[in-house]
Amino acid sequence: MDYGFATKCIYGNGKDYDKDKTGAISFPIYQTATYAHPEVGKSTGFDYSRLQNPTRQQAEKIVASLEGGIDALAFSTGMAAITAMMELFRPGDHLITDADLYGGSRRLFDHVNKKNGILFSHIDCSTEKLEDYIQENTKAIFIETPTNPMMNVVDIRKVSKIAKAQDILLIVDNTFMSPYFQKPLELGADIVIHSGTKFLGGHNDTLAGFTVTNSRQISDKLRFLIKTVGSGLSPFDSWLIIRGIKTLPIRMEKAQENAKALVEYLLSEPRVKKVYYPGIPGSKGHEVCKVQASGFGSMLTFEVESRELALHILKSTKLIPFAESLGGTETLLTYPVTQTHADVPEEVRIKNGLTDRILRLSAGIEDKNDLIADLRQAISSFA
Ligand SMILES: *Cc1c(COP(=O)(O)O)cnc(C)c1O
Hints:
With 383 residues, this protein is of the alpha/beta class. It has 2 domains: 241 residues, Type I PLP-dependent aspartate aminotransferase-like (Major domain) (Aspartate Aminotransferase, domain 2), CATH 3.40.640; 132 residues, Aspartate Aminotransferase, domain 1 (Alpha-Beta Complex). 36% of the residues lie in helices and 15% in strands. The strands form 2 sheets. Strands 1-7-6-5-4-2-3 form a 7-stranded mixed sheet, with helices on both faces. Strand 2, helix 4 and strand 3 form a beta-alpha-beta unit. It is globular, with a radius of gyration of 21 Å.
């Protein structure tokens, strides 16, 4: 049975849950570390919770069904998912990654993976010719689209054709769009990454990460890694993710509606110099985003006239918190230069257009008029 997306958010691919026969509608939290075996050589399917736990398995099944993958793995954080995934590579392997990525991913690549002998080319995958960077030892391309925080749109289908022709893996961090708006596996990606902390969880109350794939071989390798490195998602956090995903479609729609209203306001605000949002007609990633995604999401970035104004806004909003993270019910405003991207070298930041006048906003699901009024009072109270 192939259910529609909203049904999958609640039931995954089917209602095979709750084997405990109580009829519980909410999936139980199996708060157990270990499991009794019926006899030697037999298993209930669960042996030890580092390997697998029923609640985690349910979260994984739902996420796999949403991305159209054959398997998903739930990790304790998005970075744990990316860290485990990077163990697919060995010293001497080369990866091409987008230059504008979540700062933590860039930090992992440059400060952990590089030390272990992995080589990187960080390029602008939305404009540069990827073929020019492919070497004999290139094993994977890692992208986000839209990118964080500059909202560059990368053409997933185009990159996947290049990758497939050379037998290179395409890894897409789909955190910003969530599977509600964009399904990279259908566009040719081999592995999808999520910070489940963001839209999947959706309530700014837990951390989680996922890898999703439609290759049995990759899934086997990743399952070996999660049980070995031990960064699987806890039962309670798995339950929070299961619960969060139930409302993913309605949250995504409302957050996008709010983002569009905020973009409209910001475009009319003289002290705002530029708004980066792929939903703006004529903006650079608009056409590609329209084709590969079913929406433009609720993340937006804007540049104000001065650093002083940016700092003033961050301390003057009364409703919108100045906080990292995104994709939750609360609208959050952050300052990438000192917060999410502080570890990205300054020359890289400048090249990417990430100045000290840039603010990033994740629209939540509040009343849009309250959000606009809050930003307006923060901007207009600047001397
Ligand atoms: C937050 C984020 C991550 C890291 O996820 P954590 O859950 O914070 O570890 C990775 N990629 C993107 C795009 C993110 O926004």
